[in-house]
Amino acid sequence: MKSIFASIAALALTMPMAVFGQDTNTKSVRDFSSNSESVAPFNNSVKKYNDWAISAGGGSAIIQTGNITSINNGAGKNLFGWSAYFSVDKMISHAFGLKLQYDKGETRQGWGNTKDHLPNTLAARTQFDAISLLGDVNLSNLFRRVDNRSPYRWALHAYAGVGTLAYRAYLQPSAPVATQMLATEVKPFKAGSLFGQWGGAVKYRATKALDIEARVMYVHTGDNTFDGAIGNLQQITNKTSDNMITAALGLTYNIGKHQSSLFWHDPMQELYYKLDVLENKNSDVEVCKKGDVDNDGVCDDWDRELNTPAGARVDGAGVALDTDLDGVIDLYDKCVTVPGPKENDGCPLVDNTAKDASKSIEGIEFDLNSDRILSSNHSILNNAASQIKSSNAQYKVVGAADDRGTVQYNQKLSERRANSVKNYLIKNGVDASKIQAVGHGKKDLKYPECVPASKCPEWKNRANRRVYFEQK
Questions:
Q1: CA–CA separation, 129 vs 169, rounded Å?
Q2: CATH number at residue 78
Q3: Which of 245, 268, 291 marks a domain boundary?
């Protein structure tokens, strides 16, 4: 067990050395473009974020695993001790840092408090002091979406590390005379004092310099006398390690003159908002070497469409969005979710003939197991209603289904879909005598190769769930 902790300690000490190189790197954190000429050493004179802090807090401590425990101790009592911590924190990057931490506290375990001196009561308490080196991973920055431009005030942190633990465990055996004795004492920096702890925290950025933190830590002592159990008491559960849980509220003070600490910095925000230029008007730093000629928020270095119209929404490559893939970008498309030709502003055409009116309704589709008309089809049906009212012909409103489900179920479903369209047209002024609703079930597939439905992509199956017109 000690060898495992020794390996973890070595890893905790060597891991930051590779990352810490950013303080002496010849390239600046502002060097976002691979061909950027705005390169400056990243050192204390140019860095913009506070990367040192001190933290302190306090809370409770319990023995979670041991021969004598604080919770579920057999006496129906839950005994809570206290704990406090103080640390000096160094932020290596926006997602990783180190803490040199001092912990102090006292646990209480058994059937009662040793200070009460109750006879026939098994009780113990442990006073502890610990020094440890913890790795601090800012999970919120580590897994933050790269397209998230908003600032944030809440963050999740994960801690893990090793250190040296010193303690004095006092025991009051269950006897007619309540006598407290020193059961075990371990000195710091001695064999057997190595321990590990890990846990997590939620942090809130209260001000630019002050963070509020709630944390929970699991302490693995590797020592089976930390709870004060000695002699025959070791046989109660025969645990090989008495482990502790601490919960605390604390504050972190970010030291420095800069506007923000490195842990509250999102590199992508700097890329999007060009903070270098905004914070220093005289800076000659170029966030984008080639600029952003179309002002779409994507640097020309990566922009695949350099002439995006003003106001158009773009994807990560700077290409204007076209939701329905009809060749008309959303900025100009009056029917964003329904394909249509460019000459009709991206909306489907409805001609003056009954035959063309039938074609326009061909594209009305339905959700699976549904006869509800989608709001995106209202404009098509309204145009079709106008054409039918002005025509002397009569029409069939034909409903169809995809291959999923039984023949009987799909027949009824297709009839309901046809009647939904018929009723919609009647409500919009179409003479009921001019239209007849019929259902073809699943025998009228637009894509007959979709049998079974699993052979086809969903867009083909959706196209089979449709209503169209036929002239009588």
A1: 12
A2: 2.40.160.20
A3: 268
Whether the CB-CB separation of 62 and 80 falls below 8 Å is answered with: yes
List own/partner pairs for 328-337 with CB under 8 A and 24 or more apart: 335/376, 335/379, 337/376
CA distance 370 to 405: 13
| One domain for residues 256 and 400 | no
Nearest partner of 246 among 80, 135, 54, judged by Cα: 80
Distance CA 96, CA 89 (A): 11
Question: What range does the domain containing 120 cover?
Answer: 2-268
Q: Which of 165, 132, 157 is nearest to 8 (CA)?
A: 132
Task: Give me the average pLDDT of each 10-residue run along the chain (472 residues).
Answer: 45 41 35 39 58 95 87 76 96 91 94 79 91 94 64 88 94 80 86 89 92 96 86 71 94 87 71 46 56 80 83 84 85 84 79 46 78 86 85 88 92 93 92 91 89 87 87 79
CA-based angle 233:235:241, to the nearest 5?
90
| Structure tokens that stand for 253 in this block | 């003070």
DSSP state letter for 308: P
- Tell me whether residue 318 is in a domain: no
- Residue 326 domain-assigned? no
* DSSP-derived secondary structure for 345-394: TTS----SSHHHHHHHHTTEE--TT--PPPGGGHHHHHHHHHHHHT----
Distance (Å, whole) CA 354 – CA 367: 27
User: Is 363 found in the same domain as 259?
Assistant: no
**Under DSSP, is residue 258 helix (H, G, I), strand (E, B) or coil?**
coil
End of a domain among 268, 292, 311?
A: 268
d(CA 16, CA 103): 22
Q: Is residue 61 part of a domain?
A: yes
pTM of the predicted model as reported, rounded to 2 decimal places:
0.50
The model's pLDDT over 311-323, given as tens digits with 9 standing for 90+, comes to: 888 887 888 888 8
Total domains in the chain come to 2
Residue among 435, 441, 433 at smallest CA distance from 466: 441
Q: What is the pLDDT of residues 287-333, one digit of tens each?
A: 576 677 888 778 877 778 888 888 888 887 888 888 888 888 888 88
CATH of the domain at 436: 3.30.1330.60
Token couple for 14: 């060597």
Q: What is the torsional sign of CA 79, 84, 89, 94?
A: positive
The candidate with the shortest Cα–Cα distance to 303, out of 311, 312, 321, 291, is 291
